[in-house]
Amino acid sequence: MLLxxxxxxxxxxxxxxxxxxxxxxxxxRVDARRHGELLLPAVDxxxxxxxxxxxxxxxxxxxxxxxxxxxxRVGLVTASTFGxxxxxxxYGLCTLDGLAYASGLDEPFVVATDARRKEVYWARYDSxxxxxxxxxxxxxxxxxxxVAGLPAVGAGAPLYPETLPDARGPExxxxxxxxxxxxxKLAAGGAFLPPLPLYLxxxxxxxxxxxxxxxPK
Length: 217
Fold this sequence. Notes:
alpha/beta
């Protein structure tokens, strides 16, 4: 087994390789504006560090979000392209689940990432491997009662200390955590998400209300 994991659902552009037992190479860089420029070099770097070629990959793992529209699609399109070119399966995982797994916490907590517009993408967890309910996007003040007293993992916590005062690391998901979580799921016969974007809200760009369709005569 050689899993290639990538995620671009947060400002971190991250890639990793996992051999079924452990992470053998990993690369992460935080740059919210250069996902498209940085992801393929990151993949090249982890392949070189592991001393393998791309055709040695047996499956691709990708974080499906939630996350901003443009950045999220970079990772998903790249993962799907690799899967198609190599003829290997592509497994989707919730990016918040990867952050939860990376935290290693063994107590109830919340994962919160920056959703912009003064909102967070968030979900509650019983432990690093068990999510309670579905991911959501909300204003921090609107979820204050639900997250009161819980440690908070992810970059959303430091942005809203009045609601999420007990901030813990990591702020961004490392692809190695996604790969390790996927390896555990594969070994246990667990379920994955399709490699499709988990947006949770509509994109900013919309067709104007008074838009007129012009048809040729």
